[in-house]
Amino acid sequence: MVVKRYPTLIFDWDGTLIDSIPRIVLCFQESFRVIGLTPPDAEAIKATIGLPIGEALRRVAPNDDVMPELAAAYRRLWRGDDIPQAPLFAGVVPFLENLKQVGYRLLIGTGKSREGLDRETNNHGVAHFFSHSLCGDESYPKPDPRFLRELCQRAGVAPSDCLMIGDSDLDLAMAESVPMDAVAVTSGSVTRAVLMRHNPKACLAFATELADWL
Q: Fewer CB atoms near the end CB (10 Å): N or C, the chain?
């Protein structure tokens, strides 16, 4: 039997397994327009991705007074179909199927809300691949290392047996603080140069390339 370096793989969701960054940006910008505010630019929004949605909105809102209305507008847009639903990246389903077949344990650690994650994993038919998941409204916000430690505790795994895979400097900084090995992907909102500051074991274009790296 082949001994795996990392028996457990922890995936971020947005920008890592699902191509949701464009939809997130559009939902942010449209929520500002709906309540009569000038929307922030795309780069400012991308810098917040990975945080719980309340904190992400707060960082680009002009003041806290608009937060209840802004958050409500965002939730309506995100739950609706006016803005097309985000697709999984190409090849994600067979990639996850193969990882499960060869014996990896798969987890999700995301800043997305539980409602949002469950909706998307169920809609795309991939929820069954993951034994455990932890969301931004259930724990400490990334990059707090307690988020990953809590996920590992819930799953009954040691951080030393895990590999974090994410597209954000928040994912990598969090793993670095645990400490936990990590692999970066450039399919999301952060450049390779920024990701490499956190010393990932590798930097790949897409998570699906991990199959060959492992």
A: N
Domain 21-79 has CATH 1.10.150: yes
Does this model's pTM top 0.90? My answer is: yes
Q: Check residue 11 and give left, alpha or beta (phi > 0: left; psi -120 to 50: alpha).
A: beta
Residues 118 and 135 sit within 8 Å (Cβ to Cβ):
no
Q: What percent of the chain has pLDDT over 90?
A: 92
CA distances 209 to 101, 186, 214, Å, are 17, 11, 9
- Max Cα distance, the chain (Å): 61
Q: What is the CATH number that goes with domain 8-19+89-213? A: 3.40.50.1000
Relative orientation angle of helices 145-155 and 169-177, to the nearest 10 degrees? 70
Q: Pull the structure tokens for residue 107.
A: 């987890």
